[in-house]
């Protein structure tokens, strides 16, 4: 599915760079500028600085004179406007509309979804000063409105494009979140039982647990650790604590787990 972001009459060079950066973070690279204020906007210093490394998007971007040229190959058009237009397309949030496109059975006020397999998706953004013209909005299939503070709902162009690009990427399947570390390995039943036996000996050594009257301390601890789904690393940590407790209590020699089963 082809996705294109179209900026109409953009007046600030920095916003073009910000748009390129927002697109690249979401995996998109088809940017078209319609009659921007600066003919050399793609090479201006402010544009390059705000792109923050998304130079490949700027290199691939095109500048055209008319909206018709920008819409070549696009079959589904989304306007971005905070204010609904009389006689214009239905106004919905990006998430609701994208759910309709990807799940045709979703309930929504938007029109019937197109064939997404062969769809060219075009997102149109108007001038920073005037927004989108009515005649451009009327050409679109839907009008996307980002839910925002009704008393201060105007977003910067780059920020608005980032929100739309993010929502569209989610609708397309999104990206997996990278884990900072490897997933922990859960301790198995025997490792938990060994840790509990070790802990029991140490609790006896420090006088916290009376082996003659154990009550339900160890079964309750067993249930606690089962609910916690402790990892192998955490079992080793708890056994280290148990060992230090026993040493402080002067326990002469650690015995094997088999010699000290967990109390009933």
Could you describe the 3D structure shown?
With 264 residues, this protein is α/β, with parallel strands linked by helices. It folds into 2 domains: 2-171, SPOUT methyltransferase, trefoil knot domain (Alpha/beta knot, 3-Layer(aba) Sandwich), CATH 3.40.1280; 189-259, Helicase, Ruva Protein, domain 3 (Orthogonal Bundle). It has helices spanning 13-25, 45-51, 55-60, 67-70, 94-102, 134-137, 157-171, 189-205, 217-228, 232-248, and strands spanning 2-8, 31-34, 62-64, 76-80, 91-92, 120-125, 142-144. Strand 1 (2-8), helix 1 (13-25) and strand 2 form a beta-alpha-beta unit. Helix 1 (13-25) packs parallel to helix 2 (45-51) and helix 5 (94-102) packs parallel to helix 7. The chain is elongated.
In short:
With 264 residues, the protein is α/β, with parallel strands linked by helices. The protein has 2 domains: 2-171, Alpha/beta knot, CATH 3.40.1280; 189-259, Helicase, Ruva Protein, domain 3 (Orthogonal Bundle), CATH 1.10.8.
Low-confidence stretches: 106-111, 257-264
Q: Output the CATH topology of the largest domain.
A: Alpha/beta knot
Q: What is the CATH domain class of the largest domain?
A: Alpha Beta
User: What is the element string, with H for helices and E for strands?
Assistant: EHEHHEHEEHEHEHHHH
Name the overall outline.
elongated
- Taken together, the total number of domains comes to 2
Beta-strand content bin: 5-15%
Distance between the termini: 63 Å
Q: How are the strands of the largest sheet arranged?
A: 3-2-1-6-4-7-5
Gyration radius (Cα, Å) is 31 Å
Helix content: 25-40%
Q: Count the strands? A: 7
Q: Give the averaged pLDDT, no decimals.
A: 87
CATH superfamily placement of the largest domain: SPOUT methyltransferase, trefoil knot domain
- Total helices: the number is 10
């Amino acid at each position: 599915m082809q996705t294109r972001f179209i900026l109409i009459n953009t007046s600030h060079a920095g916003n073009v760079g910000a748009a390129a950066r927002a697109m690249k973070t979401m995996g998109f690279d088809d940017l078209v500028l319609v009659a921007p204020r600066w003919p050399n906007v793609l090479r201006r210093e402010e544009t390059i600085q705000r792109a923050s490394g998304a130079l490949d998007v700027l290199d691939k971007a095109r500048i055209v004179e008319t909206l018709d040229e920008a819409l070549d190959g696009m079959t589904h058009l989304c306007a971005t406007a905070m204010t609904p237009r009389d006689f214009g397309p239905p106004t919905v949030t990006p998430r609701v509309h994208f759910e309709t496109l990807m799940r045709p059975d979703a309930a929504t006020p938007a029109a019937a979804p197109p064939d997404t397999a062969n769809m060219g998706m075009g997102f149109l953004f108007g001038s920073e000063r005037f927004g989108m013209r009515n005649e451009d909005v009327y050409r679109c299939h839907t009008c996307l409105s980002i839910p925002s503070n009704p008393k201060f709902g105007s977003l910067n162009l780059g920020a608005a494009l980032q929100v739309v690009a993010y929502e569209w990427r989610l609708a397309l399947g999104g990206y997996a979140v990278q884990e900072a570390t490897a997933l922990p390995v859960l301790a198995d039943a025997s490792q938990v039982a060994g840790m509990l036996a070790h802990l029991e000996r140490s609790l006896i050594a420090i006088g916290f647990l009376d082996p003659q009257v154990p009550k339900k301390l160890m079964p309750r601890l067993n249930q606690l650790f089962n609910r916690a789904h402790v990892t192998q690393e955490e079992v080793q940590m708890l056994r280290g604590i148990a060992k230090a407790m026993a040493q402080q209590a002067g326990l002469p020699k650690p015995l094997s787990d088999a010699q000290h089963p967990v109390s009933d």
